Amino acid sequence: xxxxxxxxxxxxxxxxxxxxxxxxxxxxxxxxxxxxxxxxxxxxxxxxxxxxxxxxxxxxxxxxxxxxxxxxxxxxxxxxxxxxxxxxxxxxxxxxxxxxxxxxxxxxxxxxxxxxxxxxxxxxxxxxxxxxxxxxxxxxxxxxxxxxxxxxxxxxxxxxxxxxxxxxxxxxxxxxxxxxxxxxxxxxxxxxxxxxxxxxxxxxxxxxxxxxxxxxxxxxxxxxxxxxxxxxxxxxxxxxxxxxxxxxxxxxxxxxxxxxxxxxxxxxxxxx
Length: 272
Hints:
The protein is α/β, with parallel strands linked by helices. The protein has 3 domains: 7-63, no CATH class; 77-196, P-loop containing nucleotide triphosphate hydrolases (Rossmann fold); 199-271, Beta-grasp domain (Ubiquitin-like (UB roll)). The chain has 9 helices and 10 strands.
C-alpha cells in the first residue's frame, strides 16, 4: 500500500484484503481508485488498481455474458439512476419518489436495485437506482430501461465522474439514451428525462369537462387513431371526429380526423 494515503483509501484497501467474493473485491477496488490521492507518485498504483479491476470485471462478464435481471416496469417509463458510489443516488431517489431507502456516508451502501415511482405532469416514471458495483446483472436493467440518469456530485471532479460513467456505458454496450444530473441540484430532471425519450404525453377530455389529470403516453409521431385505440376500442369503432387543443393545430378546439398527428401536451376530445 502506498504511503501518505487517506483514511478512506486505507479502509478500502482493508476491505479488498478481506474480500471473499469477486463482487466484494470489485467494490473495494472501485473505492480504492476513487479515494487514492491523484498525483505522479501514485500513478503506478492507480494503473495497477485499474488493471486488477479490469481483469475482475472481464471475468465477471464472461461468466455472466448472457445474464440479465429485469424489474417489472411500473408506470409509463423506467428510468435508471447510475453513478459512482457516494454521489447521492439514494438521496435523489428518496427525494423524487419518497422511497424508504437506506442513506449513509458509507461507500456502496446500496447492494441491490432500489426503486420508486414519481409523477410529473400526469406521467408516471419508475426510477431504479443501480448499485455502484456495476455487475452485469444490474447493468442489464439499465440497458433495457427507457432512459439513464447519470448522477454527478458537483463537489467532486465532474470530468472524472463523466469519464468513468461513459466508459461504463461503452463497456456494457448500452444504447439507452442518457442525461446528466447534479445530485445536489436536480432541478429539471423530469424535463431532461422526457426530452431524451421518443414519447409524447397528451390529455384526454370528455365534452363539457376538464381534461384528465393522468396523461396518456404515446410514441412520438402518434395520431388520433393511435390515441383512440389506447383509450377504448369502441372509440375507434364508432369514431366520428375529434377536437384538439395544442401545438398540433392552428385553431383552439380544431376538428380533426383519425390521421391527425398529435403533439406533446395536446388535449384530445374524441366524439363517437
